[in-house]
Specification:
The structure is a single chain. The chain is α+β, with helices and mostly antiparallel strands and 155 residues long. Helices cover 24% and strands 34% of the residues. It has a domain of 90 residues: Immunoglobulin-like, CATH 2.60.40. Strands 3-9-8-5-6 form a five-stranded mixed sheet, with no helix packed on it. It has a four-stranded mixed sheet with strand order 2-1-4-7, with no helix packed on it. Strand 1 and strand 2 form a beta hairpin.
Length: 155
């Protein structure tokens, strides 16, 4: 004799996916809270040598008054910040100063404006104004994916 007992239907877990979908939409579309920090004066010293800036990534808060002190260590170098229409150049051993208010949030590329050799096009850096919301959204979304994987593994 074979066992002909009817199989019970598993209760639907559609609500798990509905919750995850709603949380996913929240992660992508709800603005992140912005820390209320008073604008400050920031002085950032950058060494420019053949094909690199040190440091290459600058992080400031929106509203900060930023002064970049650019020092060329080997040949003439320049620095231009895309999106801010700012530019300066400096001779070896000299310091050029560039002062501005970081009033635009986002990530802006800066680059050398003086041809300093064959790798000149790769002499770039980043100015990050405000918090990196893309990073935090990616972390939150990854957490949602891990929760979904756990729910799938429990079936």
């Amino acid at each position: 004799m074979t066992d002909q007992t009817p199989q019970k239907k598993q209760p639907g877990h559609w609500w798990h996916w509905a919750v995850l979908s709603i949380l996913g939409l929240v992660v992508f579309f709800v603005p992140l809270p912005v820390r209320a920090t008073a604008p400050t004066d920031r002085i950032i010293h950058i060494n420019a040598s053949r094909f690199e800036y040190d440091p290459a990534i600058l992080k400031v808060n929106q509203g900060d008054r930023v002064t970049i002190e650019l020092v060329a260590t080997d040949v003439v170098h320049g620095l231009a910040i895309d999106g801010y229409n700012l530019e300066t150049t400096t001779d070896p051993g000299k310091t050029a100063r560039l002062t501005f208010v970081a009033n635009q949030a986002g990530t802006f590329r800066f680059r050398c404006t003086v041809t300093c050799g064959n790798m000149h096009p790769f002499m770039t850096g980043k100015l990050e104004v405000g918090q990196n919301s893309l990073l935090w959204r990616a972390v939150a979304f990854s957490g949602l994916v891990m929760i979904a994987a756990v729910w799938m593994g429990r079936k």
